Each structure stands twice: as structure tokens, then as C-alpha cells.
Amino acid sequence: MKARFFSFPTVLMLLFVCFAAIDVSSASAASASSLSGEIPIGAVWSMTGAAAVYGSSQKNASELAVDEINKSGMLGAGKIKLITEDDRSTKEGAITAFDKLIKEYKVVAILGPTLSNSAKAADPIAQAAKVPVLAVSNTAGGIVEMGDFIFRDSLSEMLVQPNTIRETKNKLGYKKVAILYGNDDVFTKGGYDAFKKALNDQGIQILATETFNKNDSDFSAQLTKIKGLKPDAIIVSALAEEAAGIMSQGRQLGIPDSVPFIGGNGFNSPKLAQLAGPAAEGAITGAAWLISNDTPGNKAFVEAYHKKFGANPDQFAAQAYTGVYILANAIKTAGSSNPTAIRDAMAKIKDMDTVLGKFSFDAHREPVHSPVVQIIKNGKFVLYK
Amino acid sequence: MLELPQQLINGLWQGAALALFAMGYTLVFGVLDIINLAQGATFMWGAFFAFICVTKLGWSLWFSIPVAMVGAGLLSILLDRLAFKPLRSLTSGGLVLWGGFIVLLVGMVGKWAFPVKTGITITGAAVMLVGFVLDYRSIRPLRIREVPHLAPIISSIGATFILVSLAINEFGAQVSRFPANLFPVKPYHITADAVISPIQTLVLILSLALMLVLSLLINRTQMGRAIRAIAWSERTSRLLGINVDYVIAQTFFISGALAGAAGVLLGLAFNRLEPTMGGEVELAGLTVIIVGGMGSIGGAAMAAFLVGMIRVLSVAYIDSSFRDAFVFALLILVLLIRPSGIFGRSKAVRA
Amino acid sequence: MPEFVSNNISTINFILINIALGLSIYITLATGLLSLSNAGFMAIGAYTVAIISTQSNIPFSVGLVMAIALGVALALPIGMLVLGLRDIYLAIATLGFGEIVRIIALNGDKVVHLFSQNKELIIFNGAEGITLTYKTPTVILGLPDTTWPILIYVMVIIYILATLHNSRFGRILASIRQDETAASTLGVNVVHYKLLAFVLGSAIAAGAGALSAPIVRVIDPHNYVFSRGVDILAYAVLGGMTHWVGPILGATVLTSLPEALRFLKDQRDIVNGLIIMLSIIYLPAGLADPRIWGLFKRLVSFPKREQVS
Q1: ipTM higher than 0.90?
Q2: Side-chain-facing half-sphere of C199: CA atoms under 13 Å
Q3: Does residue A195 contact residue A163 with C-beta atoms inside 8 Å?
Q4: Is the pLDDT higher at B283 or at A374?
Q5: Which residues of A touch B266 (CB under 8 A)?
Q6: Average pLDDT of A41-60?
Q7: In whole angstroms, how far apart are CA A89 and each of A56, A92, A118, B315?
Q8: Which residue numbers in chain B have pLDDT < 70?
Q9: pLDDT tens profile A325-373
Q10: Calpha distance A316→A291 (Å, rounded)
Q11: Closest residue on chain C to A116 (Cα)
Q12: C87 pLDDT above the threshold of 80
């Protein structure tokens, strides 16, 4: 064989040179120390890609909370240094970000990631390294089960929706419903599972189950089919963007106002009423947070958020904001920035005042606070009574 | 089946929406034999141009739509110059244009203080303008190239990334909508149970009208003759004294303007504007122009209605989860049985 | 493990997987075929391994072989059907195939329920996908035991492709790319060789998908959307489509770039788009362009050798 430039050993050598070249960011973070100086906390949000909408809310809210905490001197001489990473809405991105935060930045705790499936892929890395993770938007099953360092402050749909169905059924007395849900998204699929179980438990008949894809904009075919079945209510597990389209198109197709749209956490965004306009009137949703909550600090949070980012916060923002406060509280109680100490302090959190309400973790590190059922009246979410 | 009339209307309307998008798509293919995957991004920018006009400048919708069409058309010409033209021939002006584009991008996305940012952006735009003129006036290119067929596809994928990211930078990733009450919403009743909304009616009529206008334009006018000549053979057209560059620019302008109009109207109809809105319509549009026969305008329109019907009827009578699988199965089937498309003719008589 | 490797082990894993994916599309591109089904075959490989390891006790190595075998078994009939199409038509047909694979993965349990008595059986688990259990990797000879199989796999592919490159087979593929008609006039069985290239590429992609499963651990349809196919294409385009070194360089650069250019993290897509456009326009032969290497060679003044390309 002729002598070649692209010979096997040369290529191998090149490969390793390339590996070496990627290490341009030098290890810069301070090592864990007592409550003085910077306390590095990681945050992994989906700032680009499919989930960018939610990631940007979370990024805004977490930065707002960190600013407030650092200004207030809540941690004495300590200051939180928030290191935000983008996982590009992918599992690969989340894994790389966790690796980087833990090994290079030596963070003492991690917030996120935005998506449940990214959490399932990345959280075990933190668990193995004994760095606590606080999920603020993962609602799927199998999150906290990954280990004793994994917490979440986001109520899973399984905890919210039985309550929604029970309350609305008592008041509206519906007997047969149709379901419409996004089947290619973990969040909305999880909502569907929870609704289906709650409906079965309450003995409500499901006339039809229709699906759509995330980013679909035309739902007329599904809605026409549902309209023909004449349900008493329509259960929708969708994120606000799709839910808005479903409601406007449903009303336009002549689904009467007496048939309400009932949804889950995904509805809980100011976008819903803004996008759907009058069609969103009367939409009912079970959720973890109500924008008009009179919980301590909620009003201040909504105002500060609006002032800084020019829009009202959604539930993703509220939960991320709460997440930072929960971590800060744990660090303060632990009196140290040792990850294990923070974990232990976090596990003991009971009846903490947050914008979500009185907040505790149960023995399985699941959040305990009461969900709300809300209804859109005059374009605003109010408590459903 | 009580809901059948409504489902047929739904299918018709979905078809009309797709047809509106697909016509510009298929036009560029017919002339240049390239698939412009950035058409979806042009569509999105068209919608956002109108959005800016309506919300920031307070113009009326009827004035904003033509403005958005012109904006999207110009964007489309620019796309040709940046992404496709250099693949046909390299010119020094093209290099200047690219240099200006990079400066412009740096200015637009950079996080500098006010005067620096504006300065860099304007410098970039000015350099681009110079490059554009130079590129257009250059008679002898540095190199005429034969690139592989897949090059334009890849290049336009790259352009899509840039255009979508720019939109996210400018407008944020979240969904926006046109202000309410721009357009009447009270639906018309076709039968007691079947309705169609005013905006849907408008899209339906407009897509049929544009189809007619476009085929007249191609078949009956001097410009159409030039476009068809280039579709036949670029070289021969040059020898016949046709200003090929100018005609190609015209084609891109029309195609972009159509995409822009589609963007505004569908953005209005669905109450939904977002930087990624081009992605969904793009795959569906691709199916439509393949099934219709690439480069055939009438075929694309017919295929759009067919695809719309299949999407709706598969939801209505089979299972919504498999809706897109049916569409792609149709696509593959058509490709295997009749690669020139159901309504297409062979290349020699096309366009 | 040296600190650099241990700090960046995830990035290294993903670079290796992406190299394998880049090579899988390279082999078809080198034949002049634009096939976009690689993400689909990657899904087939990953789901095969994931289902086997959650539903049975078959070891991973056997699962890997089965994944590749399934990839070949599916690629053969599909290749026979679609390879008659040219350029864009082929691209779109294969893209459609990839999307169908994704839709089936999403609704796999519905398909299973059609054939199974047990209507509660969950295998594919829809959008949530299949989660594999996490095992803390053990370090063998300086690398985790999850990295070794991928490294070996990539080395084997490179070895095969390097051998093919200089063989009659490689030259035939190149001749088909350059001029299909001329090649067939010279007596090359074009259809046969195209099919071989397609099957080889699909098998490589299926294997890469299978090997990625223990790293990503959550196998859901979102991993294999259209944009994944575009990413894979970009590796080969940036690197170059005429030499197998191309995709290696392309995958390495594009995977590590976001890590290296951290200051650009919000603008990653713009940089990505620019790289794709500029490289296809001004660097059509990619980073592995023999001219660039010639220049490089002269700069470092290697002894004069014969040029191969």
C-alpha cells in the first residue's frame, strides 16, 4: 500500500488533538466553602430548541430570585453565583451540562433541567456525585425515584388532576367527556395519563380520545369529531400555545359555551387568555400556582417579574423562582455550602412560605402544597369556586 | 355521518392553507431545479413583518399585508444571493455581500451598548448593499460552478437556522398573535352544522385566485416566457439575451412574496406567530410539491387539497395519532409509483 | 482517568457517537446519494437495544448485533424501493421514512395492542420513551466501560471505510458519484453498489443508535426528529464528502464547538447555520479538502508524498 497522509495513526493523533482543543474553558469555580464568598449553583434550562419558551421563563425567574437573595443578604456574607447552562432541549445537552457543572464548576446544587426526559437522562449523574438536584418543571413519573438527592417543587399531574376532576364534577355534574391531548410531549402525555386515571376513578365516561402533535396549529378535524359526540366537557392536556388554538377553533366550530374546556398545568400561562381571547372564557384548569394568589411575596414577585421582563410570569417562572428560594433556604439552614448538608437541610423543609403557598417536602422529596383549581373570567385566572 | 360536511370543509381549508404556501415553493423548483428549504423561514418572517407593521407602527392590516409581501420577497432575493447564487457562480461582489452579512449578524446579535450595536449593524447593511450591487453588475464571475445537487438543500438548511435564530433574538421564542378584532370572527354557516370562518374563506378564495394569477403570469406574459426559458435551459436563455440574473431575482421575489402572504394569513387564521412556525408547514409543503409534481403550480394546488383531505379524514375516521404517517406514506407511494408526481408532467414540458 | 478526559467524558462520548453517525451518512454521500434516513435507522438501533434490555435478559453485546442486523434487514427492502429515485426525490423519500419510524415509535404500543392480547402491555411508552437503569461506569484502562464499546466501534468502522476507500469498491462508489451514466456504461452495476452503500450506511447508523442507548439512557421519539438528520448531514458536509476523514473532523468540530465557544451559547444556531452555509459555498470539499491538507503538509514540511484523494 502506498504511503498515505491520512494513515491510521495520524488520524488517531488528530482525534486526540481535537479532544484536547475543546478544553478551552479552564476550571474557574471556587471550591465549596462556608457561607462566605460565592456559592456556585447550577441551572440547566432549555434556552434553545423545542422547549425554549419554557426555558426562557425559568431563566428569567431564577435570575430574578438570585438577584433578590444576593441583595437581601439572606445568606450573610455568602452570595449565590448562578451558572446557567443551555441543554438545547436535548438529553445530550442536559448530560453534558450536568457533567460540566459538577466536575468543572463544582456546583453545590442544580436547578432543572426543564424537560422530564432530560432529567431522567442527567439526574443520575448528580445523584452519583452526591449533588442535590431540584427539579422545578418535571412533572412526569420516575423523577424523585432516581435517588435521595433528587427533589422537585413541581406538583406532578397525578397530584393535581384528581382534585381538578373531583371539584369540577361536583359543581358541573358532567357524565361523559372527550379528551384531546398532545401525544408527542412528555408533559402533556403525563397530564393525559393523570386525567384518564382520575376520570376512571370517578366513573366518568370517556367518549373519545384524540391526539395532536406539539406545534400543530389546526385542530379542526379532531374538534369536529368531538363535537359530533356531544360531550358534557372537553378535557385538554396541552400547553398554552396549543390550548389557545384548540379553544378558539372549538368555539368557532360551534362547540357550545356550556361545554367547558378543562385542562392541566400546561394551561397555566397568561398566554392562554392572551392568545385565545374570548374563546378562553370559562376554561378551567387545575394547577400548582395561581397568578392572583395571596401567598406571601406572590404579588411582589409578579410585579418584579413584570417590571424586569415586561410580561406576566407563568407557572414555569413561579416554580423556578420558588426553587431558588428553597435552595437558598436550605443553604441558610445548613449553614454551609456542602452539597450533602444542603440536601439534608432541603429534605427537612416544612411549611416554608413561598409564592406557591406553604411548601414542604414529603419523605419521597415530592412537593407538598395544595393545588388550585382556577377558571378564566374576563381574561384573567381566578379561583374556581 | 353528521359531521362529514364540516370535515370536508376542514380538509378544504387545510388544503387551501397548504396550497398558498406550496405555490411559491414549487415555482423556484420549476425554474432553478432547487428546493429552497428556507421557504418556511421566509413564510415566518413575512408573518412577523406584518406583525411589526400592525403592532409597532400601527398600520392597518390591509396596508401591512402588501408591505409584508414585499419584505418577504426582498428577503427571498437576498436568500438567493447568499445561499444559492454563490453555488452557481462566485463573484467578488458575492464575497463582499457575505462579508457584510456577517458584520450585520454580529451587530444584530451582539450585546453592545447602543451606538456600537447600531453602528455595526448599519455598516454591515451598507457593505451588503455594495456587495449586492457589485454582485449584480459583475459580468464575469470568478468561477462558474457545477455543484452537487444536494448543495442548495444544505445551504438553505443553514439559512433556515440563521433566520429562525434571528427571529428568536428579535421577538423571543414565545408565541405572539395579531391584535384581536383585526378580522371578523363570526363564522358563516354552510349547513346547520357546518361552519367556515371569514379568514378561512379569504384564504380559500385567495389561494385559488393566486393560483390562477400565477399560472397566467407564467403562461401568458413576457416575464413568464423568460422564466420558462430559463427553466428549459439557462445557457440557451443567456444566449438569447435574456437577463437571467434578473429573471431569477424576479422568481425569488414572487416566491418569497407568496410565502409572506401565506405567513400573514395563516398567522391570522391560527392566531399564532412564532419563530418556529415555518417548520411544520415546510414538511407538509414538501409533501405537497412532490405529490403535485415538482415545479407544477396547478399540481401543487391540487396536491395540497389532497393532502389536506387525507389529514382531516384520517383523523376523522381512523386515528389521529397516525395522521402524519398516512401523509408520508402517500408521499413515498407517489414517489415510487410516479416520481413526477400525480399531477406532474415530465421535466421537458414542465414550468 | 486523566482529569481532562473525566471532566469531558460526556462530550467525548457524544463526539464518538456523532463520528459514527457522520460516517454512516458519508458512505451514501460518497456514492452520490442524499439519504436522510440515518436518524430513522439510529432510532431503530436504539429502540432495539432498549426494548431488548428492558424486556429480556439478553446481554448488550447480543442486542447490538441484533440492532445492526435489524438495520440491515430493513435497509435492504427500503433501499430496493427508493434507490431508483434521484437526488431530491431520494432525500424526501428517505426523510419520509425517517418520520414514519418516529411516528411508529411514538405510537408503538398501539401497534403492539393490535397484535397482542394484553391491552395494558407497555413497550414503547410513547413520548416518555424507554428509560434504561443507570449504572455508575467503571473505569477500565483510563476510560469508562461505556466509552470503550463506542471507541472500538468507531475504530472498526474507520478501518473498514479506510480499506474500502482504496479498494475497487471505493473507486466504484466514487465513479457513481461523479457520473452515474458513465459508470454504468463502463459496466458497473450501479443499482447493486448503491444498495450496498445504503445498507452499509444504515447498518452503521443502527449500530451507532444502539451504542448511544446506554449513554443517553432515555430513548424517546424526540431523539430522532428531522433536526437530528440535519445535524448528521452537517457533520459530513462540514468535514467533506469525498474522504472518510471528513465526517470525523466535521462531527468532532460541530460537537465540541458549543462547548468550546461557550460565550456564543445563545447564538449557537446562528454560528451553526453560518458554518453550514459557508462550508458548502466556499469549501465544497469540506475540511478534509485535499488542497487544505496539501497546504498543511507543506507548512509542516513533511517529506513529499503522493497525493491521494
Answers
A1: no
A2: 16
A3: no
A4: A374
A5: 217
A6: 89
A7: 12, 9, 8, 29
A8: 1-2, 139-144, 146, 344-351
A9: 999 999 999 988 899 999 999 999 999 999 998 999 999 999 998 888 9
A10: 12
A11: C128
A12: no
Query: What is the four-CA torsion angle of B72, B78, B80, B84, rounded to 10 degrees?
Result: -140
Give the distance from residue C248's alpha carbon to the nearest chain A alpha carbon, in angstroms.
Answer: 8
Residues on chain B touching A255 (C-beta within 8 angstroms) = none
Interface residue A281 vs chain B (CB under 8 A): no
Contact A254 B195 (CB under 8 A): yes
Specify the pLDDT at position B108: 86
Which residue do the cell numbers 356531544 mark?
A230
Q: Test A227 with B173 for CB contact under 8 angstroms.
A: no
> How many Å apart are CA C248 and CA C25, to the nearest integer?
12
* CA distance linking residue A68 with residue A251, whole number of Å: 43
Chain A interface includes C129 (CB < 8 A): yes
The beta-carbon neighbor of C266 closest among A3, A5, A47 is A47
Which of A323-327, C263-267, C287-291 is the least confident region? C263-267
Residue A126's pLDDT is 95
- Residue A19: pLDDT band (50, 70, 90) is very low
Choosing among 1.10.1060, 1.10.3470, 1.10.10, 3.40.1010, the CATH entry for B4-91+141-179+197-349 is 1.10.3470
Q: Please state the domain extents for chain C.
A: 3-225
| Among the partner residues A91, A99, A120, nearest to C223 by beta-carbon distance | A91
Q: Give burial (CB, 10 Å; 0-12/13-18/19+) of A154.
A: buried
**Chain C contact for B328 (CB, 8 A cutoff):** yes
How much of chain C exceeds pLDDT 70, in percent? 94
**SS in 3 state form for B325-347?**
HHHHHHHHHHHHHCCCCCCCCCH
What are C57's three cell numbers?
Answer: 435478559
Name residue, grid cell 362529514. Answer: B4
User: Which residues have a Cβ under 8 Å from the Cβ of C210 and sit 6 or more positions away?
Assistant: C45, C46, C48, C49, C63, C64, C67, C68
- Judged by average pLDDT, the poorest of A120-129, A164-173, B258-267, C111-120 is C111-120
Are the beta carbons of C96 and B158 separated by less than 8 Å?
Answer: no
Percent of residues, chain A, with pLDDT higher than 70: 91
Summarize pLDDT for A211-269 with one digit per residue, the tens: 998 888 889 999 999 999 999 999 999 988 899 999 999 998 989 999 999 998 888 88
- Whether residues A117 and C220 touch (CB distance < 8 A) is answered with yes
Minimal Cα–Cα distance from C111 to chain B, Å? 10
pLDDT for A22 equals 42
Domain annotation for chain A: domains and CATH numbers? 36-155+295-370 (3.40.50.2300), 157-287 (3.40.50.2300)
Q: Identify the residue among B166, B283, B315 best suited for mutation to test binding to A, counting A beta carbons within 10 A and taking the highest.
A: B315
Predicted confidence (pLDDT) per residue in C180-236, tens digit: 888 888 888 889 999 999 999 999 999 999 999 999 999 999 889 888 888 898 888
Q: Does the pLDDT at position A1 exceed 50? A: no
DSSP state, B87?
H
Report CA-CA distances (Å) from C257 to A324, B157, B239, C194, C265: 30, 19, 47, 33, 10
Q: Is the pLDDT of residue C60 over 80?
A: yes
CA distances from B321 to B115, C101, C106 (A): 52, 13, 9
For B139, list phi and psi in degrees, rounded to 5. -90, -40
Do A6 and C260 make contact, defined as CB atoms within 8 angstroms? no
Nearest to A271 among B10, B175, B315 (CB): B175
To the nearest whole Å, the CA of B318 is away from the closest chain C CA by 13
Number of H helices, E strands in chain A: 12, 15
Q: In this predicted structure, what is the pLDDT of residue C261?
A: 67
Cell numbers representing residue A60 in the block: 428569567
* Strands A77-86 and A36-45, bridge-based pairing: parallel
